[in-house]
C-alpha cells in the first residue's frame, strides 16, 4: 500500500468538510489549503530506476489523492496526464475518495470502462441529503469497484435504495477532534443492518471523539478511535474486493 498525491489542497464543499483534517493540519503549518498545487511526486507512477524498472513496485494498492479531492476543478488541467499514467500502471490498484462525484462523467477518460477496472472509487456522504444528491449519480456510473464512505457520519442515513450489486463496501466512521460532531451508535447499527440485508460489506472504521450509545455521551481519546471501533466487532464481509 502506498500514497500518491499528484496535487494537494482542497475547498470545503459540504457539511462533512467542516472540520477537514487536511485544512486543520495545513493551518498549523501556515499552508493555504484552498490553493491547489501540483506536487513534486506528480510523475511518480511512471518513474523508473537505472535498470528501467518502475520505482513504484507492482501489485500494491495506491491511495490516490488523499490530500485533496481527485475530482477537484483546479486539477482539470493536470488530470488527463494522471489518467494516462494510471492506465499504464494496470499492474497496480488505485483507490480515490470524492465528494465531487457529480464531476466524474465529465472528467473521466472515454475508455474508463474498458481500461480502468483497476480503479476503485469511494463516494463520501455524511448525511441523508448528501447521500440523496451524490449516490444516485454514483450508482449510475460505470465503475466496477464502488465504495460508499460515511465518514464523518454526522446524521442518520438510509442507504437501502443505493445498495445495488456494484457496491462492494460501506465504510462508517465518526469525526475526530475537539470540535467533532456526535456520532450516534444507532446510526452505525442501522447502516450495518441495511448492508447485511443487501449482502454488502460493512466496516466500522472509527468511533467519533464524541459518541452516543444507549443515550449516554462518551468522549473518546483520539488514539483509541480505531481500536474502539474494532472492539465493537461489528464488521461484516460478503464480497471480495476483486
Ligand atoms: S472534500 Fe475532503 S479534502 Fe476536500 S475539504 Fe472536504 S473533507 Fe477536506
Structure description:
The protein is of the alpha/beta class and 242 residues long. The protein has 2 domains: 1-122; 125-242. It is built from 7 helices and 12 strands. The chain has helices spanning 21-29, 76-88, 104-107, 112-115, 128-139, 185-198, 225-232; strands at residues 2-4, 7-8, 37-38, 61-64, 93-98, 119-124, 145-150, 167-173, 183-184, 201-206, 210-213, 216-219. The chain has a 7-stranded parallel beta sheet. The longest helix is centred in the C-terminal third of the chain and has 14 residues, at 185-198. It is globular and about 60 Å long. The model has no long low-confidence stretch (mean pLDDT 97). The structure holds iron/sulfur cluster (SF4). Residues 10, 12-13, 17, 20, 22, 69, 99 line the site of iron/sulfur cluster.
Topology as H/E string? EEHEEHEHHEHEEEHEEEH
Tell me which oligomeric state these chains represent: single chain
Query: How would you write the strand order of the largest sheet?
Result: 1-4-5-6-7-8-10
Kindly name the structural category: alpha/beta
Q: Which spans have pLDDT < 50 for at least 5 consecutive residues? A: none
Summarize the structure.
The protein has 7 helices and 12 strands. With 242 residues, it is α/β, with parallel strands linked by helices.
List keywords for this structure.
242 residues, alpha/beta, seven-stranded parallel sheet, three-stranded mixed sheet, 7 helices, binds iron/sulfur cluster
